[in-house]
Amino acid sequence: MALRGIVQRAEPLPFDLRVLEIFLAVCEQGAMAGAARQLGLTQPAVSQAVADLEARTGAVLFDRSVRPLGLTRAGGVLRQRASALLSEARQIAPMLRETEHSRLPLLRVGLVDSLSRALAAPLGVHLIALADQVSILSGLTASHASALLTRQMDLLLAPDELEEIEGLERFPLLTEPYILIAPAGTTRPARVDDLMDLAARLPLVRFSARSKTGIEVERHLRRLKLDLPRRLEFDTPQCVTAMVAQGAGFAVTTPLCLLEAAVPMEQLACWPLPGPAFQRNLTLIARRQELGRLPRDVAAFCQAQLEDTCWPVLRAAMPWLHETSRTRS
After folding, report:
1. Triad 328, 216, 143: Cα angle to 5°
2. What order do you get walking across the sheet with 107-112 strand by strand?
3. Fewer CB within 10 Å: N-end or C-end of the chain?
4. Beta carbons within 10 angstroms of residue 201's beta carbon
């Protein structure tokens, strides 16, 4: 996965906000001297700041052949952008003071799709008390991971695809086993070798390799030296489980994926996956030290929600889950 390429060394900025303030003052006054008086600076300091700005941007910003000073085309573009940047910057301090005592203006959360049914609604109710605007998006882990790294998302609840990326903080949510599901009435495969016999009767319904689950399942099958024909694959837990319930195949999935699909349990046979232990870890990931205690508190809320509302349902249908799953603290 090419997530590492998203984190690249940034180009140095060609200016700071103070230089933009000087530039806008010159635009307003039409002269270096007038800008200096407005800002309480010397005229040489203003002239030097403008010269440095032009050198760093590689563009001539003022037409010095006219009085008052005129803007070049590049100067006009910078004036528009600089005004917007300074306006945003001046709002930051009041916003921070307000946030310290009240709510965040915006909170954006990504959920791996297998957590949507379990957490989307309760998490939305919980977060709307903490932020003026809340956006919760479900989907594949990879797209959410990219959004977190590019600051289009604030929290990610998913399997961790970003282990090697620095500058992130992680809070464990849940460990759950991968399980085997088949159409109701199917004979249980007790050993790994029995999976080949099952595959001779029913095709394996795969999770797409676009999903983290699909990648992990394929890796595990290779460890077991199982080369199963590739006939059916889907992106979502709903489609995988629905195909199995209709008798079209069997699948390797997880309890939460099963819950997400909302297929009546009487249509399925569910068993522990034969062979060595195979599980997935779900984690809350955030950029380090940007949201204070909020990521830790949201992780604790999600842990409690999963333990109190999801696992009782799943363990009632699959009592053996008592020994193979747990919330992680």
Report:
1. 85
2. 134-139, 107-112, 155-159, 279-287, 168-177, 326-327
3. C
4. 11
Q: Are the C-beta atoms of 149 and 162 separated by less than 8 Å?
A: yes
End-to-end alpha-carbon separation of the chain, Å? 28
0.90 cut: is pTM over it?
no
Give the CATH number of domain 179-277.
3.40.190.10
Q: Using one digit for the tens of pLDDT, what is the confidence trace for 239-279? A: 999 999 999 999 999 999 999 999 999 999 999 999 998 99
Q: Among positive and negative, which fits the CA dihedral 168, 174, 180, 182?
A: negative
Each residue of 148-157: pLDDT tens digit?
988 999 999 9
For helices 17-29 and 32-39, angle between their N-to-C axes, nearest 10 degrees: 120
- Give 107-176+280-327's CATH code, choosing from 2.40.10.10, 3.40.190.10, 3.30.360.10, 1.20.140.160: 3.40.190.10
Name the β-bridge partners of 179: 253, 272
Nearest-angstrom CA–CA distance, 293 and 180: 38
Distance CA 104, CA 133 (A): 8
**Amino acid code (one letter) for 3:** L
Determine if residue 252 is left, alpha or beta; phi over 0 gives left, psi from -120 to 50 gives alpha, anything else beta.
beta
The pLDDT of residue 324 is 46
Q: Which helix (H) or strand (E) holds 109?
A: strand 107-112
Amino acid in position 318: M
Answer whether 238's CB lies under 8 Å from 261's CB. yes
**DSSP reduced 3-state for 316:** helix
